[in-house]
């Protein structure tokens, strides 16, 4: 694989660390700012919505820039957002810093997915995208546990300073290793035209509901562990690391499976995620079972990412950049839906196991949307084959002079 993919993964590592780090720090942030844990959980939803809302417009604004220049500008914005978070004097300012970093997140992974796919042969696109996203998953193995430990030992602000340092390294990696390419052809209108396709919208909907179960669970995993499973606070980073190992393995596995067949990879990963959410609800009080299931849950969760991202690139062939960024936004709409709905169940007094049941229901919705999308894709393929056959017959008749 080209070295440029590893450069993309370095920045993805920093972005993944800042995205997921809040989950392990929710109790500390809630205590420091005098808010409830569900209110502190809105920092997850706010970030997710920032990705969804900010990514596509930033991608459009930078659409005429060389993609390397765009990636560098986004890393500067990411660093600035985390600086503001580290210095935040209030919950509101911290939310603003999170949203700024989220704006960079959405556009970075959207543009980065297209760059990664362009660096390799067509049959390796999903694996290349998966390699870039490996930085995001490794953040859960190394960045998030380290950041959680730093936050518990030195205060949560130190965690954001750590993320700033990772962002600077990521910027340097993109600057040094990502090749310069000509500016993308076409313009905003060409990119927007892709959204006339029903297949693109179904692909985005698959992403929203197929990935929502992940954040329904992981947003409240710390209180689920301590209040239901009887874990100590010090065990949270260890379990988060197990979850992160699952993410890394699942991401790479999802890339390999998607290179073979995209839709079956989506059906299998979302289906497994749904089943594991229900199992987690049933075994939440058994510490050993909890650790095993949360690792498998991470595997299933990120096995969805390469096929879902590849499906959007397939549906938006010819003008993929904006659709790719929109799909990163769709992932984070799913994140917001998952964390918000799970928070509602906690606020309703259903306890900290309720997020796992919520994840199961969201997974069923994801499977239903995937089934509709699969049928639509099959109809489009059949229609295109019939059109090509008709064109071939017409051409043959023209050459032979037959009526």
Automatic annotation (TrEMBL):
<feature type="transmembrane region" description="Helical">
    <location>
        <begin position="38"/>
        <end position="58"/>
    </location>
</feature>
<dbReference type="GO" id="GO:0022857">
    <property type="term" value="F:transmembrane transporter activity"/>
</dbReference>
<dbReference type="InterPro" id="IPR011701">
    <property type="entry name" value="MFS"/>
</dbReference>
<dbReference type="InterPro" id="IPR020846">
    <property type="entry name" value="MFS_dom"/>
</dbReference>
<feature type="transmembrane region" description="Helical">
    <location>
        <begin position="100"/>
        <end position="121"/>
    </location>
</feature>
<feature type="transmembrane region" description="Helical">
    <location>
        <begin position="158"/>
        <end position="178"/>
    </location>
</feature>
<keyword id="KW-0812">Transmembrane</keyword>
<feature type="transmembrane region" description="Helical">
    <location>
        <begin position="228"/>
        <end position="249"/>
    </location>
</feature>
<dbReference type="GO" id="GO:0005886">
    <property type="term" value="C:plasma membrane"/>
</dbReference>
<dbReference type="Pfam" id="PF07690">
    <property type="entry name" value="MFS_1"/>
</dbReference>
<keyword id="KW-1133">Transmembrane helix</keyword>
<keyword id="KW-0472">Membrane</keyword>
<protein>
    <submittedName>
        <fullName>MFS transporter</fullName>
    </submittedName>
</protein>
<keyword id="KW-1003">Cell membrane</keyword>
<feature type="domain" description="Major facilitator superfamily (MFS) profile">
    <location>
        <begin position="4"/>
        <end position="383"/>
    </location>
</feature>
<feature type="transmembrane region" description="Helical">
    <location>
        <begin position="261"/>
        <end position="282"/>
    </location>
</feature>
<feature type="transmembrane region" description="Helical">
    <location>
        <begin position="70"/>
        <end position="88"/>
    </location>
</feature>
<dbReference type="InterPro" id="IPR036259">
    <property type="entry name" value="MFS_trans_sf"/>
</dbReference>
<feature type="transmembrane region" description="Helical">
    <location>
        <begin position="128"/>
        <end position="146"/>
    </location>
</feature>
<feature type="transmembrane region" description="Helical">
    <location>
        <begin position="199"/>
        <end position="222"/>
    </location>
</feature>
<feature type="transmembrane region" description="Helical">
    <location>
        <begin position="354"/>
        <end position="375"/>
    </location>
</feature>
<dbReference type="InterPro" id="IPR050189">
    <property type="entry name" value="MFS_Efflux_Transporters"/>
</dbReference>
<feature type="transmembrane region" description="Helical">
    <location>
        <begin position="288"/>
        <end position="305"/>
    </location>
</feature>
């Amino acid at each position: 694989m080209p070295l440029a993919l590893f450069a993309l993964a370095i920045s993805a590592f920093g972005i993944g660390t800042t995205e997921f780090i809040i989950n392990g720090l929710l109790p500390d942030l809630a205590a420091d700012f005098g808010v409830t844990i569900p209110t502190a959980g809105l920092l997850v939803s706010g970030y997710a919505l920032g990705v969804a809302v900010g990514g596509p417009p930033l991608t459009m604004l930078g659409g005429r820039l060389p993609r390397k220049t765009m990636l560098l500008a986004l890393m500067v914005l990411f660093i600035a957002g985390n600086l503001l978070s580290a210095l935040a004097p209030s919950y509101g300012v911290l939310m603003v810093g999170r949203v700024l970093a989220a704006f960079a997140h959405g556009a970075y992974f959207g543009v980065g997915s297209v760059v990664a796919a362009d660096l390799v042969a067509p049959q390796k696109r999903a694996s290349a995208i998966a390699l870039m996203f490996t930085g995001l998953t490794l953040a859960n193995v190394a960045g998030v546990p380290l950041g959680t430990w730093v936050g518990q030992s030195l205060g949560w602000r130190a965690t954001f300073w750590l993320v700033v340092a990772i962002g600077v390294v990521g910027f340097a990696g993109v600057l040094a290793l990502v090749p310069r390419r000509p500016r993308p052809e076409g313009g905003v209108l060409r990119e927007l035209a892709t959204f006339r396709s029903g297949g693109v919208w179904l692909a985005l909907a698959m992403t929203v509901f197929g990935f929502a179960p992940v954040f329904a669970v992981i947003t409240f995993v710390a209180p689920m562990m301590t209040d239901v499973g009887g874990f100590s606070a010090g065990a949270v980073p260890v379990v988060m690391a197990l979850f992160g190992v699952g993410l890394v393995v699942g991401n790479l596995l999802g890339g390999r499976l998607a290179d073979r067949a995209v839709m079956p990879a989506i059906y299998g990963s979302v289906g497994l995620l749904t089943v594991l959410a229900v199992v987690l609800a049933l075994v939440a009080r058994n510490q050993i079972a909890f650790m095993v299931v949360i690792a498998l849950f991470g595997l299933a969760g990120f096995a969805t990412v390469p096929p879902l991202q590849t499906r959007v690139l397939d549906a938006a062939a010819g003008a993929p950049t904006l659709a790719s960024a929109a799909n990163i936004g769709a992932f984070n709409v799913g994140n917001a839906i998952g964390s918000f709905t799970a928070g509602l169940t906690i606020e309703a007094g259903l306890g900290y196991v309720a997020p796992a049941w919520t994840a199961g229901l969201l997974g069923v919705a994801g499977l239903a949307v995937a089934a509709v999308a699969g049928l639509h894709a099959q109809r489009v393929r059949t229609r295109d084959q019939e059109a090509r056959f008709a064109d071939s017959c017409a051409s043959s008749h023209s050459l032979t002079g037959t009526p």
